[in-house]
Amino acid sequence: MPIQNLDDTAKQILSAATKRFLHYGYGKTTMSEIAGDCNMSTGNVYRYFPSKLDLAETFVRVLREEQMDKLRAVARSSASPQERLRELLNLKFKLSYERYHNRPKAQEMALAILKERPQFAVDWEDAENEIIAEVLTAGAEAGVFEHRDQLRLARIIQDVIYRFTSPDVILEGEYEMLASELDEVIDLVMDAFTCRNARHGDDHTTAL
Q: Which residue among 50, 152, 164, 203 sits deepest, i.e. has the most Cβ atoms within 10 Å of its Cβ?
């Protein structure tokens, strides 16, 4: 169910479910318990959300939109394109790290959704790609990034920094150590942009 289509009753159910999911976890929460918290029948809960997975997906969609709003704010700031890209990738890592360490129950739900409904993971990545591509487009217009398929380039950058959103790495790694490594990876990405721009500039001069 799209978030914007939730009526007051659906929002009440989602609010009650959110409290239980975050306290007890997705696996230990039942639809009947959520119904009891809302003083309504279990059947009425199912009327709005056909399954617990649908309810959890709606919660994770809210979580995703919160993250996208934060990323968009960085992408549309007044900083230079290079600064925006660096801050954007650092924030993406920070939000992932905090989700695993500070909101483990929320992450449990996200992983359940991604396992049962893999298209949700594709949609999440596509949403992030669009935001990264927005910064890359601004950089291309400013002459600091390449003029090319920015969505494809955004996906390549996502592949490059995947380590810093990987559950195994985030759960075992120290924040400061990973943040420092990510900064070095971003430096390499920025250096690559500089080298490619210089090479293309030389090619253009030769052609003249």
A: 164
- For the chain, what is the largest distance between any 2 Cα atoms, rounded to a whole number of angstroms? 76
Q: For residue range 85-124, what is the model confidence (pLDDT) as tens digits?
A: 999 999 999 999 998 888 888 878 878 888 888 898 899 9
- pLDDT tens track for 37-79: 999 999 999 999 999 999 999 988 888 899 999 999 999 999 9
What's the CATH fold of domain 1-50?
Arc Repressor Mutant, subunit A (1.10.10)
CATH top class, domain 53-207: mainly alpha
- Domain layout of the chain by residue ranges: 1-50, 53-207
CA distance 11 to 184: 43
The 3 state secondary structure assigned to the chain is: CCHHHCCHHHHHHHHHHHHHHHHHCCCCCCHHHHHHHCCCCHHHHHHHCCCHHHHHHHHHHHHHHHHHHHHHHHHCCCCCHHHHHHHHHHHHHHHHHHHHHHCHHHHHHHHHHHHHCHHHHHHHHHHHHHHHHHHHHHHHHHCCCCCCCHHHHHHHHHHHCHHHHCHHHHHHCCHHHHHHHHHHHHHHHHHHHHHHHHHHHHHHHHHC
